[in-house]
Amino acid sequence: MLAVTTQHYLILSFLLFAIGLSGILLRKNMITVLMSIELVLNSVNINLIAFSYQWSNLTGQIFSIFTITVAAGEAAVGLGILIAFFRLRDTTSLERASELKG
Amino acid sequence: MSFLAANGSALLFYVFAALAVVAALGVVTLRNPMYGAIALLLTFLSVAVLFLLRHAEFLAMVQIFVYGGGIMVLFLFVIMLVNLHRLKETRLYWGQSPAVLVLGVLLLLFFGYFFVHAAFGPAFTQPQTFVRAGGVDGVGNSQAVAWSLYRDYLLPFEVASLFLLIAMIGAVVLGRRQ
């Protein structure tokens, strides 16, 4: 019988984290970078849920509710910044966000 | 048939884990952000199924409502709001991509080694004690989460609501036309 253990969840969570992190570092489109940040936050939730089940403790689930809260706030503010940036530069490419570059 | 009955949850895990990873790769590689957003939605829904498999039913529903509903609608609105012309001629990735990929593979090997060798033992599954509220066992996941959230974690809960208010005001101020 196949068994799914906490390690499986950790590996999946790490894969999603790595994909999200590479999206943040590699992509030039601001929208995709924000979506990659959501991926990273979601992978953290997988870890919390997996350990909550592992030790039969609900605290992990409570904590992941707060992670989701932070993700929602981050999406709202990030997309607000994106709209402001688009008004200023008429593009969403991060290449044009070079005001502080010497 | 008996194989399916015995391994159903494991098969579900593998199917939806693979779906989540493939869709996440789509988010990072697809050129059009609209397709990327749809791939992200697929990832969120697959992860919700994985939450269900770990007996986090309430969190699975929150995942679908908040991520699949709220955040996705926000993303789709913004993608439609900003004018994505000149999408074809812009480059997709930064110039230092090979270095990032090398670092990513190193990170993968490092964490993969630890995750494969970390032994947590069998999961401590006693559904009766897992969902417990007010000294009563086996009440259901939502009730147990609510009991914990409104009694033990009331202050963080209120701080979270304040945080959401601040985020909302911040988003309105940032999006305002000067």
Describe, in short, the structure shown.
The complex is a heterodimer of chains A (102) and B (178). Chain A has 102 residues and is mainly α.
Protein architecture, described:
The complex is a heterodimer of chains A (102) and B (178). Chain A is an all-alpha fold and 102 residues long. Chain A has a single domain (6-96), classed as Helix Hairpins, CATH 1.10.287.3510. Chain A contains three helices and no strands. Chain A is elongated, with a radius of gyration of 17 Å. Chain B is an all-alpha fold and 178 residues long. Among the domains of chain B are: 1-85, Up-down Bundle (Four Helix Bundle (Hemerythrin (Met), subunit A)); 140-178. Helices cover 75% and strands 2% of the residues of chain B. Chain B has seven helices and two strands, in the order αααααββαα.
State the low-pLDDT regions of chain B, or none.
none
Q: What letter string, H or E per element, gives the SSE order of chain B?
A: HHHHHEEHH
Query: How many strands of chain A?
Result: 0
Which two chains touch over the largest interface?
A: A-B, 73 and 87 residues
CATH domain class of the domain at 1-85 in chain B: Mainly Alpha
